[in-house]
Amino acid sequence: MRNTSTFVLLSFLILTFSSAIPAGENFRSRAHHENTNTDISEDIDAEIKFGKTIAARILGQFSLYQNENLTHYVNLVGKSLASYSSRDEIEYHFAVLDADFINAYSAPGGYVFITKGAIKAMKDESELAAVLAHEIAHITEKHIVKEFKIKGKEKSASAGISQILGSSQSSTQVLFAQAVDNAVNLLMKEGFKQKDEFESDNVALMLLAATGYDPHAMHRYLKRIKKLTAKEEKKSGQKPTHPPTSKRLKALKTIAKEEGLQKLKLPRGKKRFAKYALK
After folding, report:
1. What is the overall mean pLDDT for the chain?
2. Residue 158 belongs to a domain
């Protein structure tokens, strides 16, 4: 029964929002930055296994939020966005973490996490879509895979994720474990490179427009949570994992202008979001 209702509601989400897309606007083709690094492993199975290991580490630090309806809703929104992404060869999984601070994480292979606190700060479905689209973009652009490409002992040879996963040698297994540790540290503490974050914002805006969501939702949400996140970072003493909000807001305005998104008036999904909103 759930599978049938999921398909029907997912179809409804896609049809409802995609029908609002202006004719002739091919935002989907712009929701991807071409990967020119040909030395990155293209083994999808290996990427998924790598990401699954990272996801398990994340779930080792945070519990899942036990709200089936909200989790179902987040997955429907996320999968509707993913259906318009540049990588439809992988299956995406979305989960809500039982954490009150504002953040979201993504691991290679299609694993996306958003905190309960991040959802509480949202006002409509397009803002939820904006955060999920940003995390989807980190996956489609392979930011972690490119950042932690694993090299072998040979000076000029590259083992690659797939070779390491398929090797029984202890040395390569150690390298893989180190790559996982580094990836988790990047997600939780260090943060992506600024160029990767800005690239994900760019791709996310195109993905929002392609799916039929208000592309200004990202700017609206970031502006609202600016003070909240600053307080959280000061209280915890942790280093921020994203570039300064002021820089992101400025960059989002530039992207909207360059991509012709300024005058687009697409749905926000306030009523539907209100059914699942956290108090």
Report:
1. 82
2. yes
- 251 neighbors 48 (Cβ within 8 angstroms): no
pLDDT tens profile 72-114: 999 999 999 999 999 988 999 999 999 999 999 999 999 999 9
| 177 falls within a domain | yes
Long-range CB contacts (< 8 A, 24+ apart) of 94-101? Answer: 94/132, 95/64, 95/71, 96/64, 96/65, 96/67, 96/70, 96/71, 97/58, 97/62, 97/63, 97/64, 97/65, 98/62, 98/63, 98/64, 98/65, 98/66, 99/62, 101/232, 101/236
Greater confidence (239 vs 67) lies with 67
Distances (CA, A) of 32 to 26, 119, 206, 245, 253: 12, 26, 8, 23, 19
- Output 160 or 64, whichever has higher pLDDT: 64
Domain of 145? 40-276
DSSP 45-108: HHHHHHHHHHHHHHHHHSPBP--HHHHHHHHHHHHHHHTTSS-TTS--EEEEES-SS--EEEET
Distance CA 88, CA 151 (A): 28
Whose tokens are 């914002």? That residue is 201
pLDDT confidence of residue 235:
62
CA atoms within 13 A on the CB side of 119: 25
Residue 17 falls inside a structural domain: no
Residue 188 gets which letter from DSSP?
Answer: I
Total domains in the chain come to 1
